[in-house]
């Protein structure tokens, strides 16, 4: 009876080790290490950028698109996201995105008014929560 328990436990450890090694190998493969979001449509929670307006200020939205520009800030980064309906900047603490990468981000809608010579040049942006 004692011999059976050791054998079963040994098989369990062997199976777990195999699973761990297989997972590590798959994660190390460069082609499989990232999720391709280009053909992924998240669904009803994603807001098209063209529909984000200053009337949505202080509401939280999800946007999905491709990073077009990166602007480093003091302790944050700003990314310009394009989803084919428009472009918007999002300010975030995340600093690991690259130009051309597809992302889904959650942010709080903000509007910064910039009146100049009697005209309004304000801009809508998102601040990631």
How does this model look, in words?
The termini are far apart. This protein has 1 helix and 7 strands, in the order H-E-E-E-E-E-E-E. With 129 residues, the chain is α+β, with helices and mostly antiparallel strands. It folds into 2 domains: 2-32; 49-128, Nucleic acid-binding proteins (OB fold (Dihydrolipoamide Acetyltransferase, E2P)).
Short description:
The protein is α+β, with helices and mostly antiparallel strands and 129 residues long. It has one helix and seven strands.
Give descriptors for this structure.
single chain, 129 residues, alpha+beta, OB fold (Dihydrolipoamide Acetyltransferase, E2P), 2 domains, five-stranded mixed barrel, two-stranded antiparallel ribbon, 1 helix, 7 strands
**Helical/strand content category:** alpha+beta
Q: Trace the largest sheet across and list its strands.
A: 1-2-3-7-4
Shape by Cα distribution: elongated
N-to-C terminal Cα separation, in Å? 57 Å
Number of helices: 1
Q: Please state the second-level CATH architecture of the largest domain.
A: Beta Barrel
SSE order and pairing:
Blueprint: H1 2-28, E1 60-72, E2 77-82, E3 87-92, E4 102-112, E5 115-116, E6 119-120, E7 123-128
């Amino acid at each position: 009876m004692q011999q059976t328990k050791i054998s079963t436990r040994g098989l369990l450890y062997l199976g777990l080790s195999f699973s761990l090694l297989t997972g590590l190998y798959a994660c190390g493969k460069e082609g499989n290490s990232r999720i391709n979001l280009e053909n992924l449509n998240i669904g009803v929670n994603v807001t098209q950028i063209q529909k984000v307006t200053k009337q949505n200020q202080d509401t939280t939205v999800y946007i999905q698109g491709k990073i077009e520009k990166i602007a480093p800030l003091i302790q944050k980064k700003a990314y310009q996201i394009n989803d084919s309906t428009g472009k918007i900047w999002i300010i975030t603490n995340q600093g690991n995105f690259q130009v051309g990468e597809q992302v889904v981000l959650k942010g709080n809608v903000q509007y910064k008014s910039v009146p100049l010579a009697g005209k309004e040049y304000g801009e809508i942006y998102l601040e990631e929560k």
